[in-house]
Amino acid sequence: MIGCGAGAAICEAYRASIPSDNSHQARNTIAAGTFALGMSKLARSAPMQTKLTINGKSHNLNADTRTTLLDALRNHLGMTGTKKGCDHGQCGACTVIVNGRRINSCLTLACMHDGNEVTTIEGLGTVDDLSPLQRAFVAHDGFQCGYCTPGQICSATAMLEEIKAGWPSHVSADLNAEIALSDAEIAERMSGNLCRCAAYPNIVEAIRTVAQGGRT
Ligand code: FES
Ligand code: FES
After folding, report:
1. pLDDT digit string (tens) for 111-133?
2. Cα gap 24→18, rounded to integer Å
């Protein structure tokens, strides 16, 4: 990151704010508070250069420090796969994966991610070569309007890695046992991603199919 001491301080506060229990509510509450603090401190700030690696490609972003990662992706870099729903950390439509962890891109400033690796829906698969989750969403009818779908798929992609790594959730009965991917586990772990079309049963089915190694 170039210049701007306030920006660097806010980045530090952001990193320190990441909760160890990864609870969705705690994550969003803390991120929202840090974000608000950042926005007020940066009220008179200037453009800043930020290096981002997005879907394996390097980008130099020159944007106002108040630019969210979501707006940087959509408005500055032309990657419109990531969707803006509420813009307040409540719907999950803007979910992307940063350094392997899923986050709401509307709740974080782009300048906080200098040097980070970002994966968006465009990086998970292509029209000719869909990712396993993308194929499963199609096969199981896991969407209607499709607006929430990029966020659902990014979230589910990272969520399956969390399970592989043995991270328990709020509904895991035994913290030491291997995690059984029940419907309750999937629902809890995907609770940050809302679907206004209520395609939930099919979304759960799609995720379960991929988690169990099923082909679609
Ligand atoms: S647009 Fe980010 S959570 Fe709704
Ligand atoms: S498919 Fe329409 S909001 Fe989820």
Report:
1. 999 999 999 999 999 999 999 99
2. 11
